[in-house]
Design brief:
The protein has 15 helices and 18 strands. By secondary structure, it is an alpha/beta fold.
């Protein structure tokens, strides 16, 4: 299907200084600032005009950095819970679900809301053709980008910890232009990020940008747009588990746009986010009122990551302290951070399956467990409206009915690879693509 959608008109603004500037195609930072800050898109359309449901995520195109149409997307669904709400004693529990649940009206084949950011990022990539996109991931993000880039002939380099590669599956083979390199067993997401930074520094490669990429955040922000346009107004509370906090930052930014829209009320949702014990760096900092993450031993942090139920909640360098990051989002919304142990998260996953009829990812179970904790400790008003962001689900259902293909690593790097080693490997893996663009990365 060819799209009749025109590129979105927007400017970029520094959160720290308020400076407004043009997007040069892949701007991740303000042009005239040295201190760390996120940038935000300010869209020409101040009001959200929904497109048809057949557009998938691009029904929210007014508030996405849209440059080219990418086929195959689905928007998240939002519905009012009955069974789970009844068990929890809640009057207005709204569930926003991203995943594979045909009976519920959604078929995200990667089973994760990471599809939302992947489609949005790949759409923005249309303004920057000819580059090999570099993405670091603990698992779900890599699966989403691998599938979408395979389907749309977009060269992609994934950097993932070797221990997490069992998450890189699909019901269809992956395109040869999608390559996977890994950090060796025992490494974590931060190690994968470090490797991706080396790769992205080379000619011909383009860093996806993580939380700094407006397309990633605004793609994830469509969960809130889904909820609010179904409910009719902004809810009181927003629950989500966080590894980097990017999804919660995106929810806050979507909320601010909805306030400016003027048709959905004047609330700021209280951001109620959660981490999986024992890996809780943002919780630890927040509880002592610190904008900066507390000092930690890297070996201890890696050991903590090995113990958590939800491996994707494992970012050791999250955008917490940065201007416009999670600390600011929580302060502005009078939010809170919870910590959830594995036992509570597993029990929450079982409860959701029993009451709502679909399996959910561990991260979503952490979010539900934090909601249950908030109810038990009387930290929320059970009469008010709650948005529970179920960020992934239906994977068990999907795997029961599909044969799976797994993306295999092209190279596994030992700790601390030199830039020369990375160059040599990538020159071999992407020889055709680099030569086609007249790029050489070999001295």
């Amino acid at each position: 299907m060819r799209s009749s959608l025109a590129p979105t008109i927007y400017k970029l603004r520094s959160v720290r200084t308020g400076e407004i500037f043009d997007d040069k195609g892949w701007s991740l930072d303000p042009p005239n600032e040295s201190l760390p800050t996120l940038i935000r898109a300010e869209y020409h359309s101040r009001q959200l005009n929904l497109k048809g449901v057949d557009r998938g995520i691009f029904r929210f195109v007014d508030w996405l950095p849209f440059h080219q149409y990418i086929e195959g997307s689905e928007a998240p669904i939002t519905y009012k819970s009955k069974e789970l709400a009844s068990v929890l004693g809640l009057k207005n529990l709204w569930i926003t679900f991203s995943g594979f649940w045909p009976a519920g009206g959604i078929r995200m084949t990667t089973c994760s809301f990471k599809e939302l950011e992947a489609y949005s990022v790949c759409s923005r990539l249309g303004s920057h053709p000819g580059k090999i996109l570099v993405v670091a991931s603990a698992g779900n993000t890599a699966r989403a980008f691998a599938r979408i880039c395979s389907d749309n002939d977009i060269p992609l380099l994934l950097c993932v910890p070797e221990d997490n590669i069992d998450t890189l599956w699909s019901d269809r083979p992956f395109a040869p232009t999608v390559k996977l390199i890994c950090t060796s067993s025992g490494s974590d997401y931060f190690d994968a990020i470090s490797l991706s930074n080396q790769a992205a520094s080379l000619p011909g490669f383009l860093a996806e940008g993580g939380a700094k990429n407006i397309a990633r955040r605004d793609g994830m922000g469509t969960t809130v747009l889904s909820a609010v346009t179904v409910i009719g107004h902004i809810p009181d509370y927003y629950f989500q588990a966080v590894g980097s906090g990017t999804g919660a930052i995106a929810a806050w930014e979507a909320n601010l746009r909805l306030l400016a829209d003027g048709r959905f009320g004047n609330k700021k949702m209280q951001l109620m986010v959660s981490q999986n014990e024992p890996f809780t760096p943002m919780y630890d900092a927040w509880k002592v009122g610190s904008r900066e993450l507390l000092p930690t031993d890297e070996d201890v942090a890696r050991h903590q990551v090995e113990q958590i139920y939800s491996k994707v909640l494992s970012n050791r360098r999250p955008p917490y302290s940065i201007a416009g990051g999670l600390f600011d989002a929580l302060k502005d919304t009078h939010g809170e951070i919870f910590k959830v142990n594995n036992t509570a998260a597993i029990a929450a996953a079982e409860l959701f399956a029993e009451t709502e009829g679909i399996d959910i990812h561990p991260a979503a179970a952490v979010a539900l467990a934090s909601l249950m904790q908030a109810i038990t400790n009387q930290l929320i008003d059970p009469q008010k409206e709650i948005m529970l962001n179920i960020t992934g689900g239906g994977e068990q259902l999907f795997k029961q009915s599909h044969n799976l293909h797994y993306l295999q690593p092209s190279h596994v790097f030992k700790p601390g690879p030199s830039i020369e080693e990375v160059k040599e490997v990538l020159a071999r893996l992407f020889q055709k693509e680099l030569q086609g663009n007249g790029v050489s990365i070999v001295f």
